[in-house]
Predict the 3D structure of the following.
Amino acid sequence: MPLPGAAAQPAGRTFLRDRAYDALFEAIQTNQLVPGEVLRDEELMDWLGMSRTPIRHALIRLAESGLIEMAAGRQTTVAELAPDRTNRALFVSGIFNEYAVRRLIGTRADGIVDDLAVQRAEVQAGVENGDGPRIARGIGAFFDVLTTRVGNPELDRQVRRIDAELARFLAPGDAATPVDVEWLWHGVEAVHDAFVADDPDAAREALRELYRPTHGNFLERFREPEID
Amino acid sequence: MPIPKPTRPAKRLLLRDVVFAKLRDAIVSGELRPGETINESEVEAWANASRTPVREAIDRLAAVGLIDVLPQRGTLVAELDPARAASAFSLLGELLAVSSRVVVPVSTSSQRNAIARRARTVRSAADLVAPDGVFDVVVGVVGNSRLRQAWDELAPHVLRTWAIAPEHAPAVDDLDLDTLVAAVTDGDGDRVESVIRRWFDAHDPHPRTALDAVAKETI
């Protein structure tokens, strides 16, 4: 999967560490490796058929995406699905979405409204069928329509990473994160409507409303200031 | 993996984190020059660390784009990339503007004082963005570790470009620090957001739109 730094590699060549990363990422996303499971270097070396060095590289990158936990003097484990982590990531993801909305509304750029409509319909279908993963994918794709159009490569890198984190946290079976799908659905509708009307004030209000529960939970439960 | 006995039990640091920070700071300050080859054994001696933590630190720096690991050519300090720094700067503004809008209203008086105190000694744009700079203190007050991670990935590109090529550093005299401090002291998140946006927007290479114009008129 494309990650920051991957661009430095010449085409057609993959590093062992990237293969290790992809294999571990996939195993975590598909619950082949479950939350809390201990990851031992020796077992991973056997499983992946490679030496320790590329595996350590891959583990460090996974730790930076919050998918595994590594700490001094402790075993390396697959990260637990934790509401605090999901909340903090949603908070940041919302900032990237606001960044894109602010830069695109009012520009009447070709196709945005139509592309958003396609993903809005996906989210709606997910809501009607009670299909959580489809809703999550649809919402991700809805905002990706906007973020990919801004043309800020740093935004693209950050969004790719945080989407990967949220995909896991919003995956099926994550009972730790009850999601109010009606709320999300109305948020997506309101943002799309604002683009149809090309109305910056409506867009800003729609985003504030969409992220109100995220911000509220953050302030009440998950905020950990570095100074008191 | 060789993990050192923690010397300070309260804050456990991995050796690779120490090496990472040391290398990052040397790259950001320009002590390690753009394009300079990084010799792993020299880094081991310089950082007083063994091979594994040095390699892991290099890998992380490659992941955030400060080092290029090129097959056949070796490990190099990334070339200066002012366009990338500008893109990072643009995102820093959004991270700061939105998160302070949310958090400033519920910040404590000692947090507000910490921001105000730091604002009194600003001489350059780096005094805003660098560790313990005004904006960095605001990020600490926000208290979202995932936001902190994004900030710490983006800020080094900006700071490094300003340090090595100062002509890219924006002026700070058009940042209304007095209004910023007053708004922080009043716990007025919307006003803090406006002041921050106005400064970042003035130096932002990414196109702005009507929404930003509306935000400006509110101050």
Q: What stands out?
A: The beta strands of chain B are 67-70, 74-77.
